[in-house]
Description:
By secondary structure, the protein is an alpha+beta fold. 16% of the residues lie in helices and 33% in strands. The strands form eleven sheets. It has a six-stranded mixed sheet, with no helix packed on it. β42 and β43 form a beta hairpin. The chain is globular and about 100 Å long.
Amino acid sequence: MDPVQLTTVVWFVSVLLCEVASQNLIKNPKKQKTEHLLLISEVNADNPGDDTSEYVELYHTSGRQTPLDGYHLVFYNGNGNMAYRVKDLKGFSTDSQGFFLVGSSTVMPRPSVILPKNTIQNGPDAIAVYFGKGPFKENMKVTNEGLVDALVHKSKNSDRADDLVRILTPGTEPYLEDPLFRTSDESLERCQGRDSHWFFQVATPTPGSDNHCVPFAQLNASTLLISEVNVVSSPGEFEFVELQGPPSTDVKDLMLVLIEGSTQKIYFALEMSGRTSPDGLLLIGPSQAETQVDVPFPPNSSLPLLKAGLNAVALYIGVNSSFAPGTVPSATDLLDALVYTTVEGTDAKLLDVLSPGKPIFYGRERSQQGNSSMNRCVCCSATRDASVYALGKPTPRYFNDCPKKRFSQEISLCLQGAGCHQESSVQHSMIMLLAQALGKQCGCGVSPAHFRDAAVACQGPDLVFTTLLMARSAEKLTGLLQDFSLFLESKEVVGFGEWNGTVTATCLRDANVTEMSPATPGKPGSTKESLIPQAELLINEVNPDNPGAREDTEYVELFYPGSVPFDLRDYWLVLYNGKNNLAYKVVNLTGHRTDDRGYFLVGSNGVTPKPSIVLPPNTIQNGLDAVALYHSATASYQTNMALTDEGLVDAVVYTSRGSEKADKLLAVLAPGQNVLYEDDSHSDQDESLSRCRSLRPRNHDSFQVTAITPSHENACPPPGSNSTEYVEPHNHSVLINEVGLANCSVPYQFIELKGTPSASLKGYALEFFSSQDRKPYASIPLRGTFGSGGLFVLLSEQQSRPGKAYDQLVTPSVWSNLSARQQFHAVAVTSHVLQIRNSTIATGQSLEDVVAFTLKPSASQRHLGFLGPIHVVSSTGERPVSLSRCSSCSTTFAVSEATPGSENSCPQESLSVILGICLQTPNCSMWSPNPLMLASLQKALADSMEESCSCGVCPCYLQGLNFTCFNSILKLSCQLWARSSKQLQQLTKWQADFPRSPRLLVVDGKPLRSSLSCSASDRTVLSEASFQAWEIALAVLGSILLALLLTGVALYFIKRRPQNYTTIEMNDRCEIMADI
Length: 1076
């Protein structure tokens, strides 16, 4: 081979290698071994007028925060089938629910990637998600190499996109974003059919949240139905009835009728005239409410109109004259009815008329925690059936808050008995049985609407029942699965007519069912496997402190209450030091299993029986420390690692001294709970912390101090024993719902409690504390009962409210004999219990609830010993404020206006604004987005707002706070919630004035000055990124020129060197060309 040929071959191989290197390393995305995928969840490409609210919503099927490294989002133009925009998602992550938004700056919530207006073309075009190295670039031809998901969309029926469909979505026609669907904006949302097949449909835009997937074809063909009912306890709360039917349709000749259950007679009737919204909703309620209603209650109506107890809401065809109050209702011309109750024990006579053969709906959660309404969760043909409703957050003028298939898991159980029946009535009875059993376990109002796709199968004489269990969040699903596991362990006997069966999990193993450890979350919404939630591995007993100095009988006992022996693969035991919150000992349990009784010991060699894993003496620290149990096949746990809740199964935070604090340990491992105290005065022998009261993980209330029992049943005090026994005399809880704070001279104005309606308060007391004294300075025995709304108010005799039967008056001196200028205050609810010690009965106390606070703005938000976290309340002058229990606050309580005897005034997401401010900092390295730093920023911002508006603001009002720091600019962003429109205006004014304010924001002693513009840092980032791009381009161009130069030099020398002088003949022109 001559030199010319050699050079040609080298050049050809180099080009070939470059081509190969430029190809996507993942030729087939199906070979990508990922359990979850990033999917296109919703697209809004065409807005009315200018396209200023367009977006693409992506969803990661893990349902949790996930890095998007390796993914690309590509937009294709149907005219030419080339990419007109490409976005590399490297460095981004989904939110905690798995959502990721790319879109216009006006979209709420604000997208992670902002697009200029009119960026997303209306169609016929396509949007595709790829995984791999690409190359993915603008103007590239459409390809399915590395394709993960795609949507071909159009805005006109006549549009065609054959090439895009053939390459990206073969067999699926482009989806039409029909602008005639709604008078306002619309989007294309991904939904899942009954056969688990994915499809897109036109819907109401829901950026950053679950798609509602209402079957609008059925809705358009349906009549009006009762969609949501909100029963309240006081006139100040917003009660309403919401109907749903065909969108944008006139409503006439319909009657809303309210029926009292005790008399079975009509007590209210309203003739309706109006028009449904573009979503098909019609709202009926009081006209003076902040939320605008479509059909108002009559002005002279006595509120609340919807009564508690056993009652019904019905919808009839007819006119007012046919439904006079006091008459008996009938089923004639009845469109829909909901029979509900808020109390135990019901009379079924009303059901026989309005909903024969259907259940009554229990309209209040037994726990009485948080406001809830009755929401229809099945559309659109099921009428007069309470089983299609579920308790959820009130959502007037919006889609209902229902259990979601995204938070679901398939469950199964076996009924062992003499015979098996597969009738549909058995399916219905099983769903009712599960709803009642799980509702009783959790006290959270489980209804048949939490179950879907039920099926029964016979296995010999036994019946196997399978269904999909759904919840409203991942946390609620986890709780329901644990409750289901406990239900399986109960082996309850149930009856269906003449046939009885015993609930058990045994025959599930014969039914070819896949088992999954409960600590390993399944794919949300998956219905391809039957997943059985088993009992959870638990920390059962902890003995960290031995008598004297020997410390050679310390141990941690684990217990598995399910089928044993239980394999401990991928379980880890981690011991944390409370002084620095780092792991000082990590034990990998893989390769071990429990004994035949479910126990597993880790401890010193002095423990009898000998632990399966032996630790050196004095390994387990006495406290203040923690023991945590984790389960993960991927996470790595190691010594000196920081606190984490990733893979956390169970945890115990303990101390051997009662005055120590463990804010960080509790916040991560056992939020909202108190430290466990291993009281060595329990006996003169060794003692331990033993699980006695429940099998719920991460629940400190389950533990008691007992004698040590390694690898044996815990020594929990049985009734009648000679040890200490705590007998709870109450079957309901009492919570502090609101604390009215008077002013700077008198601490309290009123105390509002929350509990079970009509329940007695006998045996309960309020106790008041100050500073850090463990003894109360005042105590008030409670008397009376809760009202129908579950509220009870204590207030001064000088502030009595006429006609309020559920108040208790106290003399002012009881709680005003202490100045509010004391550093800290706390109020606690205690209940009297019986203590039986050595056969002697004495009275004792059990702490039910406690709230600690300070009126000194400079105080830190920390724990007040055994009384829990301190709530800092900024009190300006004599302005009275309240601490109100709010479900929207992670700290449970928020500063608010006083609302004794009515619904708490809490910050709402519906009254919110996006907060975006910039601060100047000398060094970005001092800012790391950890929970403590975020909490400090929250408090500093809340203090600044309160100083400006004096409108009652606390850190809870700043939701989802996050920040970035670049070039000495600290950029903060979050949602700023408010209690009212007026407060929202005040906070908006603070945001507008803040950049020009001369005052410094002090965060953890670091003074920060506001920056007038956040765009400077963005421009810096952009210019720097552009400079990096020019550097890369110049480097590539230089490499190409260098390669060409070297090739030319090589050719030149080859031509100048004669190969064989005897055969070379050259003329002048050839010689010149060779020189060239």
